[in-house]
Batch of 3 targets.
Target 1
Amino acid sequence: MSNRALLEVIALDAQDAVAAQAGGADRLELVTDMAADGLTPPLATFAAIRAAVDIPLRVMLRSADGFAAGDVDALVRDAEALRAEGADEFVLGFLDETGAPDMVAVRALAAALSGCRWTFHRAIDRAASRDALRKELAGLPGLDTYLTAGSALGVDDGLPVLLAEAARRGEPGYEPRILVGGGLRLSHLPVLRAARIDAVHIGGASRPHGWGASVDAAAVAEWRTALDA
């Protein structure tokens, strides 16, 4: 079995996707509207990216900035349409007004995604209790990853939390893979890898010329090399 760490890169379009794959990305997170921290991309964008690359794609299910689910029925329709187009991996995550997971929304989408793998995204970093959230979501079909910085402020602040959660792997609620993203820097990698955290997620780091620029294959390759070191 390969010990290769997973490198996930945010892609907004086919050009991003091609560059990310060329740089060594293992998987893409597909979103639109980075000003809102990533929303569900149009079907046409998914189709164009799927045609352009042959690595796994995780598609965001999120209709508005923030962590409230909004119109759950519309999210379910988006999920069904994307599945019909060929999508089979997703990203989602919603909180209620108390900071607990919105289980009505999450369960509805988990049911719509039956047979698919999915990531619970950085809503965990805004939760009232990370531990309670993990335990409430435990056992939901398809949930195999948490995208997290360990803190809403980013990895610099959240690193102790990430290391503590990694040490609990295998406990109820701590079985899903930790995918670290949010203010992540290359300098964090040695500590994360020493803790056997084997998955990272980059957005801005793959775009050294700013969010308005496309993914830079050389920037992705730098991360690939560092992860493989």
Target 2
Amino acid sequence: MIRILIADDEPMIRAGVRAVLATDPGITVVAEAADGHEAVRLVQSHRPDVAVLDIRMPGTDGIEAAAEIRRTVPGTGVVMLTTFGEDEYILRALGEGATGFLIKSGEPEELAAGVRAVADGAAYLSPKVAARVVAHLAADGAGARAGRRSAARARVDALTGRERDVLGLLGGGLSNGQIARRLQLAEGTVKGHVSSILARLGVDNRAAAAVVAHEAGAVPAQPGSRKAPEER
């Protein structure tokens, strides 16, 4: 059973998230908070597997709460709920250890998938979030976009072939166990590859590595998937 905390200053949003998660029999909501300060306190008390945080809340926002949760309860994964137009907040949250990012207007099944991925130790970037982050990083114009894409590809090309395989699946939201099964490797071997990938890319966590993978075009397309729009 995956234990969840939900934090959002809007009661209706909390109710909606709780209702969506209630459709998954393997997930239970153990606490709810209306702001980041309360979220941190309840995480420290309940020790949930995943905290689902609104990125913008009064007082202590989701980013500050994510940083404090990472510092005091590192066993709790953090999923951020965001809306279009909050790209800078997403980039800040990446630096504070959040490993899941979901659009509030996204498909309901994506919420449970993101929670499960983060609970399993994976990074989960909604395709729409990944597209927005990459677009934001390239916002300085075509030259800067090409330069960043080229730099990301150079960083990825410096990895071994197996590390590139692992990075691509990591960027697709797969956990170590799922990557191990896909590549027919031991899970410990995948964990070692992930550690090496983070070090060689110069990033702190799986979500940041996933952004590099998306920017470099290293994430394999999922069967039947459609490219997420970069603008809305």
Target 3
Amino acid sequence: MPSSTRLLADRLTESVREQLADAGREIEVQIVELRDLAADIANNLVTGFPSASLAQAIEAVTAADGLIAVTPVFSASYSGLFKSFFDVIDNDALTGKPVLTAATGGTPRHSLALEHALRPLFAYLRAVVVPTAVYAASEDWPGNGDPLTGTLPRRIDRAAGELSALMRQQAAPAARTPDDTAVVPFAQQLAALRPV
């Protein structure tokens, strides 16, 4: 069974995909699994040179038109692997990039990690972080009998809508054809990033 972090990343990605499709835009999604890159990230921190697979992951994140960054919460903050990945990216690489931040944890008491850890990290990188961050505690997932379980899908859709709107705003302007009809480009990429 996938981790709750992967489930949250997948649900956010699907909601963004659906909302952009409703607006007539198709997206290509690339999932970056940091767990698979842990040794490469550590080696890059020591040597300053990325492996081929780490270079591909960095390219996927920095070339994307939007980013969904999901991390499990450890000790009231993002995971060390998550932070290490952003330590190997150039400080200017995410400037102006729309980012949706999300996190998972065992208790709702750690939800402020999104505001005191993730939002400042992406602000430092000069990314444009959507207003709604999504935190999913164990009790937010269906099947536990909690009456508040129904709020997670609404929060996912609201945050995905904000990211979708930013991605549409930052898309290339429509080209004009001879009959003055707008032709909207469909080349948008979304990278969903998550460590486990």
